[in-house]
Amino acid sequence: MPQRTRRPKLGQNFLVSATAQAAIADALGDVSHRTVVEIGPGRGAITAILARRAQRLIAIELDRELAPRLQADFAGQPGVEILQKDILETDFAALRAASQEKLLVVGNLPYYITSDILLRLFRFHASIERAVIMVQREVADRIAASPGTRDYGLLSATTRMYARIEKLLTLPPGAFSPPPQVHSTVLRLTFAPRFDELKVAPEDFLAFLRISFAQKRKMLGKNLRTAGEDAQRVISAFEASGVNPQSRAEELDLPQMACLFRQLRLLR
Ligand code: SAM
Fold it and tell me: Which CATH superfamily is domain 197-266 in?
């Protein structure tokens, strides 16, 4: 495809390392009988590999110049659809509708909307089996962090409620054109929501996590009281759940958080 001026606002750092392109496509596994959705195909670096492998490939590109170019490039391939639209308005359930199996998602993400894209994927978790995504290295560290570590926070806890997380590889700025300011890391998320296992309702528990991590360095009990929980009930819930009342949210794993949440609800 001929070069064009990139739009920095759309997070356009194109992946030029052929090894990395192949590694990302390989990380999706066998796609020969699957529908793959690509987020932000750009100039088609990963698209071209997956177009040869997938039964069906739906690539969603917001840029009004790149999308028609991709449509022209892949016009001869009936299994490939290029949609010019915003991934944040994409209905993954509708994309899956025709296929028995869940979707596989891939993308070298536009970094400015990484969290919003993740939340969108979580919202449609029932339609997605796994996602291989490239994000800024520091964001990958936060997503993949374990409880009790410096990077663990709301993003890590929320992602862990929906998926198992693997860090696959980290790339230097030189793997992209133009090079970004940051290193990038490829993550694989295998969707396996934990709400049933932890006996919590998704909306309520996610709201509880947001409150719990509102001021990360403060004690969890303080955050709960600031959000309007009754002080005595908070003390009782810590006692009943066996969680140390001096804890910060970042020190607790999800079963402990869920236990505390259930006790608070029981005491209402
Ligand atoms: N996949 C290509 C690659 O690896 O070279 C391009 C990756 S580039 C980091 C991110 C791509 O996402 C750009 O092509 C950009 O135009 C596109 N993009 C940005 N915001 C988007 C949105 N809201 N919905 C869909 N695509 C978007």
Answer: rRNA adenine dimethylase, C-terminal domain (1.10.8.100)
> To which residue do tokens 């236990």 refer?
259
What are the strands of the beta sheet with 80-84, ordered from one edge? 80-84, 56-61, 35-39, 103-108, 128-136, 184-191, 163-171
217-245: pLDDT as tens digits? 899 999 999 999 999 999 999 999 999 99
Other CB atoms closer than 10 Å to residue 66's CB: what's the count? 24
As a whole number of angstroms, the distance between CA 188 and CA 193 comes to 15
Q: Residue 226: its pLDDT value, please?
A: 95
Bridge partners, 84 (sequence order): 61
Ligand 1 pocket test, pick from 6, 7, 10 with the greatest ligand atom count within 8 Å of Cβ, gives 10
| Fold adopted by 14-193 | Rossmann fold (3.40.50)
67 CA distance to ligand 1 middle (Å): 10
Residue 237, ligand 1, Cβ within 6 A: no
Ligand 1 in reach of 44 Cβ (< 6 A): no
User: 101-129, pLDDT tens digit by residue?
Assistant: 999 999 999 999 999 999 999 999 999 99
pLDDT digits (tens, 9 = 90+) for 21-36: 999 999 999 999 999 9
Closest residue to atom 19 of ligand 1, CA basis: 10
Same fold: 14-193 with 197-266? no
**CB 67 near ligand 1, within 6 Å:** no
| pLDDT tens digits, 143-193 | 999 999 999 999 999 999 999 999 999 999 999 999 999 999 999 999 999
Average pLDDT of the chain, as a whole number = 95
Domain boundaries, the chain: 14-193, 197-266
